[in-house]
Design brief:
The protein has about 425 residues and is α/β, with parallel strands linked by helices. Helices cover about 40% and strands about 15% of the residues.
Amino acid sequence: MIVEQGNGTRDKGQTFALRPLCLNRPAEARKELERIGVDPVGISHLLPKLEHHAILVPRIRAAAANILKQEMLSLGGDAAVARGTVACSVATTDLLLIGTGKQLTSLCNKLTGQPFGLQQLSTELAVLLKTIRKPPATIWQTSRRQLLLDRPLIMGILNITPDSFSDGGCHNDLPRAVERALQMVEEGADLLDIGGESTRPGAPPVSADEELRRVLPVLEALSDKISIPISIDTWKSSVADAALHAGAEIINDISGLTFDAEMGATVARHKAGLVLMHTRGKPQQMQHDTAYHDLMGEVSTALQQSLENALKTGVTQEQIVLDPGVGFAKDCSGNLEILHRLSELKSLGCPLMVGTSRKSFIGKILKKETPQDRLFGTAATVALSVAAGAQILRVHDIRAMKDVALMAHAIVHHPS
């Protein structure tokens, strides 16, 4: 038996050698269609079909869900709903819209005038689709400069503490702190993040006065020695205010403005950069609350709320970076889920920062009890975070992680 080959025939038993293609970007899809020889008009028709989205609509009325499902089916897409929704034997359901960008845009138009609040859903969906299509932010505005985000930025960790999980006690006197800061600059750090209070799980609280006693001398000593931006890792507005006056230009708030009601106004007054992170509770309690019904949904909602609160105080969106808080009120499985689904947070419209460096979940997976032995595990998380869209990486090992981040960035953004 003869079957078709490249020259018109194919021997019996010879496979078709099928392979999946990764065509996540329009430029990649267009190049492959051109290689095949598709007519230019056909390329324009096919490109939108290669951009599929899955968008969750939580807790919607069954009647509204049925309208959405029928409308998506009529457009060639689909919607996933809970069993019993069609018969309305359940009152509400989470719903997953599945379709191309073009289909979802058409859905927005078809929902105009529909009941059950679907007109409002149409408006929100249109905004979300616009955000998804928008190129990632290219600048981060601090009180002193605009930081370009055309490549991953490496934020070096400098803990002026006796009890941080990885380097506690290593740099908690002025000469050693300054020496390590200068070393990180030489290794290629783009920013320094200085902390005067350990935020490891179970760490005891530190007063604002003690925190300032630790960080201010370091800030003052570095003011005429380094030119890269300095961030202060604090949730206290009084510490933030003093540090910004002393030369810091970014505040890294692990609480996402939830621990100190004055932090947003303080950052707005200084026009400083701001990192909003997700956590539950202060370090003393956070690892006792790691169970989530919907981890990514709760993290996304909390970060959205922090973002809105910051904007209400006068902070601009260009000043804000979001951090999902790996290791903060998450167990090992939760940390892996965040990293696996990190790209979902890009829809919030702000640059993303990820801090996985030497953390205990890496040690648990790799059976590495000593934080300094988690270099290669950290490298894997950094590379995959960059691939998922992280633009700032907070790390201990500057030189190694900068190489990892830049290499991952080069692969992801290769023009193909």
